[in-house]
Amino acid sequence: MIRSSSGTYLNRDRRDSNHWVLTRRFFLADDYSIATYNSSSIIRYARLIHLHVELQPSRDGLIYPPYLWIEYAEKNNSQNDIVNTKLSVSYETDPTRHNREWVLMAYLIATLCLKFVALVHTILQLILQETFFIDWERPHVVEDSQTNHPISKDVSKDRIELPVVVWRTYLVANEWAELRCVRATCLGLQLLLVLMLLEAFNFMRFSIIQPGFGIGSPSAESTILSRFAVVVLFYLLVGFLQWVVQLVVVERMIQDPFHNFIDLCSIANISVLALTHPLHGHYIHGRSVHGRADTGMAEMNEFLQKERDPFHNFIDLCSIANISVLALTHPLHGHYIHGRSVHGRADTGMVEMNEFLQKERDDLCGFRGLEPTSHLQTFTVCLPTAFRTRYDEIMNSANNAMTQTRLTGLDQTTAKMAATVRAHEQMNIFLREMIDHSTTDVDYVIRDPSEVGFSRCFLYGREWAHFSFETTLFCVTYLLLNSLTLAAAIVFCVSGIIRALTSLLCTNHLVKSSLVDHRFLI
What we know:
This protein is α+β, with helices and mostly antiparallel strands. Among the domains are: 10-98, no CATH class; 257-455, no CATH class. Helices cover 44% and strands 17% of the residues. Helix 1 runs parallel beside helix 12 (484-514), helix 2 (167-179) packs antiparallel against helix 7 (310-321) and helix 11 packs antiparallel against helix 12 (484-514). The longest helix is centred in the middle third of the chain and has 31 residues, at 224-254. The N and C termini lie far apart (93 Å). Keywords: Membrane, Transmembrane, Transmembrane helix. This is Meckelin.
């Protein structure tokens, strides 16, 4: 009924609602304001009344101000005529605001990308950590029986100092490299159990959308959100059960990898220093209580037999081999395995080795720990800047020697091995002096650490980064491909590739940081 200056009725066009002129007043019938040119009477009435209600898209439960749309008609006023009026109500809402599954998929894909970035960061920390194996073995002094000259009054002239054998260092280094990719959960078993529960036992039926508590029919409808909830629930549940079984049953009753590694360091008379940061890391004290670790064939077979329990046996091997391990995961942070022998040497025979072990059982010798009265062999270390300065000087000396070799034209392989041997000897002496408190500017104090804190040097100690990435990848691939079997295959292949690359890169960096020959790392 509202007319513009040009004579156009603005509110008659439903399609152009932007030009409507709204008013707060309306009427149902009018037989007074209409002018007529004859004696007949005309009445204007509301032929159609429509109430429009629109929901707000951004705020649940709220509406825009409703408006009343009235269509008027005119008719001759007669007392016998019946006027019909139609009343209707309409509700308007945006259906896309309730269909937000694409938002969930976008968040899941973004989460997968961020989890991959976090996994790469975790792997880089493992790769770039610096590890060094400290050999506590002392050179053997034997009588020189091949000399033809008369026995000298100076006893030292008739003796030969045999160099320390390096097999124990290589053995501990190989065990350390193998433990890099040991995990707390088994991916193959994880995927097999998830597929068995969701496919064979048909627990995917719980993703069906329907009211009530029934399990529904296979033809019922499910949504992305409901399928994601079921899949992630069972995947996390199976992973949690695996972790509990590994922690409570396997490590307590079958094998304890971390404590076995500590025992291996003690057997090998080798300590481990692993720096996860430039001035922080872990130390495993593997110094043997027998003083030496070089033994015969029978003892070596016993060591290899115990490798089935990798972590604990590795620490035992370090102690018996009189070798410690230093692994730097960061320039000033890492881990240390104390493998120094309490007997001062590790090169011995079978009979003497058995005597050493018997003394340990009878408490007739010192303990394997870093302190004489302690059994604790693993530590987390925070190092001073002076340590890092000296450490970098020794490492750079080997690199500078290689550069000078290329300039002089000498044989690179021979020069590289000679420079590596010199740097390894200097590093071993420096770390031994530091642990023995012989260096004043690189001294240390001992606090109560976690005995298995050095597991942070391996994938075992960073299980959540891998497990959460695999969970997200499994859910995303299943929701995109709608196939649990194909999703499991993709996760298994991707995880296998990541594990192989991690093992390769960690081994390559271990060779550089520990100054061991790569040809002896399996």
